[in-house]
Structure formats: C-alpha cells, structure tokens
Amino acid sequence: MNLSFFDQFTSPCFLGIPLILLSMLFPALLLPSPSNRWITNRLSTLQLWLFHLITKQLMMPLNKNGHKWALLLTSLMILLLTINLLGLLPYTFTPTTQLSMNMALAFPLWLATLLTGLRNQPSIALGHLLPEGTPTPLIPALILIETTSLLIRPLALGVRLTANLTAGHLLIQLISTASTALLPIMPTISLLTTLVLFLLTILEVAVAMIQAYVFVLLLSLYLQENI
C-alpha cells in the first residue's frame, strides 16, 4: 500500500514510449496565441498583464545587462507555473516532481550565469570565493567552503522544487485516502478530513506558484552576482 502512493510520480508511458515530453509541452497549448488586433479578448489581455507583471518582478533586481535574459526567465516562469498548477488536477502527471527534469533546468542555467561572470568580470567572480578581510590561516578553508556552496546551488534549486511538490502531492493523496476510508465508518470525521483536504489543496496552489517564482528568482539573483 505504501508503494502505491508513489505511483503518481511514475512517468507515464504509452506502448513503451515515455510521455513526459508531451506532458511538458501540453501546457503551452493552453495559452492563447498572440493576435495583431488592436482590441483583444479578456483572456489575451489577462495573459499580457500576467506576462508584464512576471517580467517586471524578475527584472527588478537586475541591471540593464541582465535584461537580455528577460525572455528566457519569463518563459521558464510561465512553464513552471503552468506545469505545477496543472499537476494539481486529478489524474494528471506533474513533470516537476522528477528530480532529473528539475536538475536539467537548473544546472545549465546556473552554469550559464557562472560562465557569464567568468567571461565578463573574472576577478570579481573569483573574488566571491574569498570574503574581504579574511584572516590568512582561514583562507584555504573559506575558499573550499565557498566553492562547495557555489557548486551545490543547482542541486539546491532542483531538490527544493522537487521536495516541496512531492510532499504536497503525497499529503493530498494520504488525506484523500483517509477521507474515503472513514466515510462509511465515521462520516463526521470524514467530513472534517475533507475540509482539511480542501484547505490543503488551496495551500498547494499557493506552494505551486511560490516554488515556480522562487526557482526563477534565485536564478536571476545568481545572474545579478555575475553581471
């Protein structure tokens, strides 16, 4: 029974073909296509307002050199946001619960920010490994600690997103299973459990949006350090 709780995190397959790529591309089909009309419908207006708000929030801590990354960071934010929210629907698969996918997003982008800093300002980028005013005996240890903290950044990004979404999905399944099992035995307790499940679902919607924002925001902060 315990193993069945983790079946929801198994990548779906059809005739032996993994469908994780299709589940990643499907949210993009839900976005309305751009139009050349002067007057658009409410959905397109809402979409443009949301894109503008997200881009403004992500570009706020960056200087003008970092605005070149606006399209990439905004697209990543929209992708993670739609995947996380659609994954809360019943009988759906959430690709962002896979550590391999999150690491595939985090590692190349983190490496790109690091290489940008080493190319544009190598002395400042390497200077982050040794804080100013460090006593001479502590220099080797601090360089090792700062290098380790720098290298685990992509791992922290991927594990944070995976752990938060996985924990939320497991809690929802556990409480829903308990509510169904208690219904014929103790209906009152089952109704209270259903209320807790409803509140938890609202919390998980907020977590899905916050984790997508935190993932991209940390990438933008890493970029700011290197430009």
TrEMBL record:
Subcellular localization is given as: Mitochondrion inner membrane
Bilayer-crossing residues are 12-31, 69-89, 101-118, 170-189, 195-223
The record's principal subcellular location, in a coarse class, is mitochondrion
* Recorded topology in the membrane: Multi-pass membrane protein
Looking up Pfam families in the UniProt record yields: ATP-synt_A (PF00119)
Keyword Transport annotated:
yes
- UniProt GO cellular component terms: mitochondrial inner membrane; proton-transporting ATP synthase complex
Q: What GO molecular-function term can you cite, just one? A: proton-transporting ATP synthase activity, rotational mechanism
**Cited InterPro entries:** ATP_synth_F0_asu, ATP_synth_F0_asu_AS, ATP_synth_F0_asu_bact/mt, F0_ATP_A_sf
Q: Which reaction does it catalyse?
A: H(+)(in) = H(+)(out)
Q: Which residues form a coiled coil?
A: none
Write out the entry's keywords from A to Z. ATP synthesis, CF(0), Hydrogen ion transport, Ion transport, Membrane, Mitochondrion, Mitochondrion inner membrane, Transmembrane, Transmembrane helix, Transport
Question: Which family is it part of?
Answer: Belongs to the ATPase A chain family.
NCBIfam families per the record? ATP_synt_6_or_A (TIGR01131)
- Binding partners and assembly: Component of the ATP synthase complex composed at least of ATP5F1A/subunit alpha, ATP5F1B/subunit beta, ATP5MC1/subunit c (homooctomer), MT-ATP6/subunit a, MT-ATP8/subunit 8, ATP5ME/subunit e, ATP5MF/subunit f, ATP5MG/subunit g, ATP5MK/subunit k, ATP5MJ/subunit j, ATP5F1C/subunit gamma, ATP5F1D/subunit delta, ATP5F1E/subunit epsilon, ATP5PF/subunit F6, ATP5PB/subunit b, ATP5PD/subunit d, ATP5PO/subunit OSCP.
Could you tell me what this protein is called? ATP synthase subunit a
